[in-house]
Amino acid sequence: MTKMHFFFVFLFVTFQVTAQKYELGKVTKEELAEEFHKKDTSAVAAILFKKAKTYFDYKNDGFKSFTEVEMKIKVYKPEGFKWADVEIPYYIGYEKLKDEKIEILSAFTYNLVDNAIDKQKVTKESKFDNQLNEFWSKITVSFPSVKAGSIIELKYKLKTENISILPEFQFQYEIPVNYAELLTEIPEFYLYKGFVTGFEKIASEQKMNSKVDVFQDKYNQGLKMVYKQVVTLYSIKDVKPLIEEEYVNNIDNYYGKVLHELETVRLPGEQPKQISTTWENVVKTIFEEKEFGFELIKFNYFLKDAENLVRGLTTNEQKMKAIFSYVQDRMNWNNRYGYYTKKGVEAAYKEKTGNVAEINLILTAMLRLVGFDANPVLVSTRKNGVAFFPNHSVFNYVITSVKLDGETLLLDATEKYTDINSIPLRALNWSGRSMDPNNSSEEVDLMPKKNSVKMVNVMAEINSNGEVNGKIREQFFDYFALWFRSIFGNSNSTIRMDYLEKEHSSLEVLNHEVLQNKEVAKPIIENYSFESSNEVEIIGNNMYFSPLLFFATTENPFKQENRLYPIDFVFPYQEKYNVSVKIPEGYSIETMPE
């Protein structure tokens, strides 16, 4: 798990920045001519510096938070061109606050042309604003004329009314960072708790100074407010890149970042007020919204359907399966995430389509109606990351839990091939938070408790020319079966045969068939014949081959000398291979694997 550092804004010391100045617009010929990074010659690009400043301004309707960011990036190789498209996400999913705003203040590309510095401005046609979903949008700045050696500079400002958390400051990436700096200027009325994620140590220094904010009241009379503020400087040099390799859930969870959560408000003449929230409070607030909790108490629109579904069924397992299968078959997911309903459960049920919340809240309500202890579970998907402190914006998904015979079962009806206790892979992200009708909350472990199994049986024969042919039978259980059905469930054999031949480059697949039981709880069985001419090496009178043939692992997926973040296999599994090889007549086994 991520190493976490905690710090509190209590001590005050003076600081001075006496090191090298990091300023935009100061691009030199020497920087442009530099062909590789001095400390990491393999780097395709590097962040020469990244600086951010978060500050507050007071207006007649309260404090607003602003964050100005400056970045200077050097591109060394063509593989680094992707750093010339800078994406800036901002949140638009607030219920009671205005959407965040991004303003691009400056953006330039620098190149060395005929031994002279060429400076090219990014035009408005190269700035794109796209809404990702109902919670997030992003601005993409595409820098022109980027080539090996280019330097790009960007400055932008984020405005937000949400002061319960400050914008995160990321100081580590998959490329080196020469210098990173965050300066926060926080009014004395607010005490924030800070977190540093990742594995790098970042220095911090603090002081206190005075600030004057001038504003107009509702009568357009000029006023000013004088107060103290806490100034904190976080800085770090020579940050090593964090390289993503296989078997990681979301590399974004492990990059070095600075995060702040509002803990206490200390207004003049008032007792300090604790703001730092708990998961229970977060869940309660979400539950009380009409787009969530109110939708769970509606039953009339499916009352007759639910009664018909369980009529004549005698066991709880039969009833739960009937309800789950019905919602799963009836409803069609529109690929939209979120824990709030958009058009409401009644409209979604009638139209037979809806977002994640609408489908799984229908499932939860229907299970409750027929007597189950069913509750919604808030989840952050794997791509969305994990939360380092309680907040609303981390969740982007909701599933259903059922407590039955002392066991908590998880259900998600958005996919056609999932089963009870077999939620989609996108939702397998550590843990979620359940909520019951009494507004109490508890952590729910999302990870499967049993191994998913893949069984492979190979009957192969090697001829005197070193060619291999035979038959293969593969069986996929649980999450392996879910993966197979999700990818190949509605496709013909040709697509699966192409997939196998690309996965095993020396293979030619023949006579392929899939025995795909319509019951998702049953395994997938796949049979095919094969031929291969590249699995055996003949040297003199000897033949050499791997006993696992083309199923052998030929490359170590763990390439880093020191891997700091954990290994994540998505779900627990077991693979079993039973390989029988008939060798050519006249040959005998000389060496067996240890």
Describe this structure in words.
The protein is mainly beta. Helix content is 13%, strand content 40%. It contains eight helices and 30 strands. It has helices at 29-33, 279-287, 303-310, 316-330, 345-351, 356-369, 479-488, 493-503; strands at 4-8, 45-59, 62-75, 85-91, 101-113, 116-121, 127-131, 136-142, 151-160, 165-170, 177-187, 190-197, 203-216, 222-239, 257-265, 273-274, 332-333, 353-354, 373-379, 397-404, 407-411, 431-435, 441-445, 452-462, 468-476, 507-516, 524-532, 537-539, 542-544, 573-582. The protein has an eight-stranded mixed sheet. Strands 1, 10, 12, 15 and 16 form a five-stranded antiparallel sheet that branches. It has a five-stranded antiparallel sheet with strand order 21-20-19-22-23. The chain is flat and about 95 Å long. The two termini are 35 Å apart.
Unreliable segments of 5+ consecutive residues: 1-14
> Percentage of helical residues?
10-25%
- Our Rg estimate from Cα atoms comes to 29 Å
Residue-averaged pLDDT, rounded? Answer: 92
Number of helices: 8
Give the tally of β-strands: 30
Q: Strand order within the widest sheet?
A: 6-5-9-3-2-11-14-13
Cα end-to-end separation: 35 Å
Largest sheet: number of strands, sense, barrel closure: 8 strands, mixed
Q: In terms of structural class, how would the helical and strand content be classed?
A: mainly beta
Work out the strand percent. Answer: 35-45%
Gross morphology: flat
Question: Which helices and strands, and how do they pair?
Answer:
Elements: E1 4-8, H1 29-33, E2 45-59, E3 62-75, E4 85-91, E5 101-113, E6 116-121, E7 127-131, E8 136-142, E9 151-160, E10 165-170, E11 177-187, E12 190-197, E13 203-216, E14 222-239, E15 257-265, E16 273-274, H2 279-287, H3 303-310, H4 316-330, E17 332-333, H5 345-351, E18 353-354, H6 356-369, E19 373-379, E20 397-404, E21 407-411, E22 431-435, E23 441-445, E24 452-462, E25 468-476, H7 479-488, H8 493-503, E26 507-516, E27 524-532, E28 537-539, E29 542-544, E30 573-582
Parallel strand pairs: 2-11, 17-18, 24-30
Antiparallel strand pairs: 1-12, 2-3, 3-9, 4-8, 5-6, 5-9, 7-8, 10-15, 11-14, 12-15, 13-14, 15-16, 19-20, 19-22, 20-21, 22-23, 24-25, 25-27, 26-27, 28-29
